[in-house]
Automatic annotation (TrEMBL):
Protein name, entry field: FAD-dependent pyridine nucleotide-disulfide oxidoreductase
InterPro entries (alphabetical): FAD/NAD-bd_sf, SQRD
Residue ranges of the TM segments: none
Length: 293
């Protein structure tokens, strides 16, 4: 039996891509998919960002014995043939930040940043949406410099047409916190923690925490387990920053030590991001053909 732990971006796409009659169970503390890209858009427009999942076995994972392939939940214990750990991590104060920005009684200037540089894209997008909504929010960060100088230069030049920077942050997106019983997990080039145990998504140590990347990891593992894919996982960071007028479409391998950067800017890419937000709710988190974009 294959157990997938977690119903986020990574876990769902692993589940969808395990085929060929393999027995699989998806365990999660909630039977719904939350698409955080759409969640952020609620700063400017009411947007549906979650959808129910009727195939999830709703159980809260309490412990994972990686050595013995054993799982403990609030409802029982399981022995697995393979375990895919996609439990992600939690950003403790993201909801608070969203509520504070949306609070009409807050008048003082807000300066937002991210504790983890890999979360800089969140601080930047929140600032851009806040500006569109007429909120007094400024940005403190490095304009996604972790993706390379080419990316940072384009992002800095374009976004500063719309937003202002600040030096003393008073809203800090706290670092993502993984489950205590696993911590962040190191993987090899096949996303293996050890034989028959895989880690995908935000729980991978040292990697960017990005939904698009997590989906690709899930697809890779699902196909690999099904015998439809060989070779190493080739990570790439793909993301669209929406300024409200145009989209900055970024592709980079710099976080993995490869100097590949591609940046394209157009109005159609802004519209593409809005389509993606609707698509993933409709598809219940299934990446599908967007894998090839």
């Amino acid at each position: 039996m294959i157990f997938i732990l977690g119903s986020g971006y990574a876990g769902l796409n692993a589940y969808y891509n395990i085929k060929g009659g393999a027995e699989k169970i998806l365990l999660s503390h909630e039977n719904k998919f939350v698409f955080y890209t759409a969640y952020l858009r609620n700063l400017i427009k009411n947007t549906k960002y979650e959808v129910s999942l009727n195939f999830v076995r709703k159980e809260d994972v309490k412990d994972v014995d990686i050595s013995n392939l054993e799982i403990k939940t609030d409802k029982g214990e399981y022995k697995a043939d393979k375990i895919i750990i996609a439990l992600g991590c939690k950003r403790p104060n993201l909801e608070y930040i969203m509520e504070r920005i949306n609070n009409k009684n807050v008048k003082e200037e807000m300066c937002i940043t991210a504790e983890d540089e890999y979360d800089d894209y969140l601080a930047l997008q929140i600032t851009l949406y806040s500006k569109i909504a007429g909120k007094n929010v400024r940005y403190h960060g490095n304009f996604l410099s972790y993706l390379g100088n080419k990316v940072a230069n384009v992002v800095s030049e374009l976004t500063q047409k719309y937003i202002k920077t600040c030096e003393e942050p008073n809203l800090i997106i706290e670092k993502c916190v993984p489950p205590e019983f696993t911590g962040l997990l190191s993987v090899n080039s096949y996303l293996e923690v050890k034989k028959s145990v895989y880690a995908i998504g935000d729980i991978i140590k040292g990697w960017p925490k990005l939904g698009e990347l997590a989906m690709r990891e899930g697809i890779y593992i699902g196909k690999k387990i099904s015998g439809k894919l060989e070779g190493e996982f080739e990570p790439i960071y793909i993301h669209i920053v929406d300024t409200g007028r145009e989209g900055i479409h970024i592709r980079s391998k710099v976080p993995w030590g490869i100097n590949y950067q591609e940046v394209k800017v157009s109005k159609i890419r802004s519209l593409m991001k809005r389509f993606i937000e609707k698509y993933y709710i409709w598809r219940k988190g299934n990446m599908g053909f967007l894998y090839y974009l």
